[in-house]
Design brief:
single chain; 325 residues; mainly alpha; MetI-like fold; 15 helices; disordered N terminus
């Protein structure tokens, strides 16, 4: 019957078909618009939740620094009060004046800078040579040795304190008769090799095309020349990152310098000085936290500026090292 009607009324069927197509297109358009609105709302909700979580985590990270700053501006009575405030009732700028009067910044900063510079240079040299050997040189047992190096990263640093202490003691760098040079050597030599930095730079070296190495060998270049004229310039961001991270690590070190200086305050680093007697009240046998926090703020500012200035190199160096294994 339908076929008969189709043959008898072809225009009628065509009109219905056309109307059906138009309705289908309109419904499809409405469906697509609905889906797009739903996706837009979903993306908005996801973005909002993501930024909310990031804001919460940022507050957790920033709050200790904020508390350190406001504590440095409080009086000792307000710090020791039962009810704590999130802003000092009386801003004590005199805390910073007192710190510069009683704290020997010059001695501690000199020791810290000397140890940090030479420790960074030594770490940089050992890292470059080891990373080049593991990335480019072919020798028997290379991969096995590299995996052994990586396995040592699983050992906590605290477990190496005893062996390092015995080693530097056998060299006569600690104990009675310790000199400033001995203290510097004891703080620098045990930490001039870093497996993590070797791994980081080795991964970066492996990104450099092997064709460059072969072309350099064809031109008669030695491995030494290829390392310093080709690989080191190409890996400059990673090397800068290593220098900054190592310098910051030495600046913040506390346990080892405090252990090997044996109470010789004139040999200690800035982090050890912050826990010294300059901020002790001998009469009441208590710590003057306002002064101590003021000194901590002064010590933290150089590291903060260092990170702000070179942050792009740190991000670029670490990011490039993780691209290719």
């Amino acid at each position: 019957m339908n076929s008969v009607n189709a043959k008898k009324y072809p225009d009628f069927q065509g009109a219905n078909l056309q109307k059906h197509i138009v309705l289908s297109i309109e419904e499809s358009g409405q469906t697509v618009a609905t889906i797009q609105r739903a996706e837009k709302v979903g993306r908005g909700i996801t973005t909002f939740v993501t930024y909310l979580i990031l804001l919460f985590l940022a507050l957790i990270v920033v709050f200790p620094f904020y508390w350190m700053i406001i504590t440095s501006l409080k009086s000792n009575a307000e710090i020791e009060a039962t009810e704590q405030t999130f802003f000092p009732s009386v801003v004590m700028w005199s805390n910073y004046v007192y710190v510069f009067q009683v704290f020997d910044f010059v001695t501690y900063m000199k020791n810290t800078v000397v140890v940090a510079i030479f420790s960074t240079i030594g770490t940089l040299l050992t890292t470059v040579f080891a990373a080049f050997a593991f990335a480019r040189l072919e020798f028997k047992g290379r991969n096995a040795m590299f995996w052994i190096f990586l396995m040592t990263m699983m050992i906590p640093g605290e477990m190496m304190v005893i062996s390092n202490y015995i080693t530097v003691n056998s060299f006569g760098w600690i104990g009675e008769g310790q000199t400033l040079t001995d203290a510097y050597l004891a703080m620098i030599v045990p930490f001039v090799v870093s497996v993590f930095y070797i791994y980081l730079l080795r991964q970066n070296f492996k990104q450099i095309p092997n064709e460059l190495y072969l072309a350099a060998k064809v031109d008669g270049k030695s491995d030494w020349s290829f390392l310093w004229k080709v690989m080191v310039p190409l890996a400059a961001p990673t090397l800068i990152s290593i220098c900054i991270l190592k310098f910051m690590g030495t600046w913040n070190s506390y346990v080892w310098p405090n252990l090997i200086t044996s109470g010789n305050h004139e040999y200690q680093l800035i982090s050890n000085g912050l826990r010294g007697s300059a901020f002790q009240d001998p009469e009441l046998n208590r710590v003057l936290y306002g002064y101590q926090m003021a000194a901590t703020v002064v010590v933290t500012v150089p590291l903060f500026l260092l990170f702000v200035i070179f942050r792009k190199y740190i991000m670029r160096g670490v990011g490039r090292a993780g691209i290719k294994g």
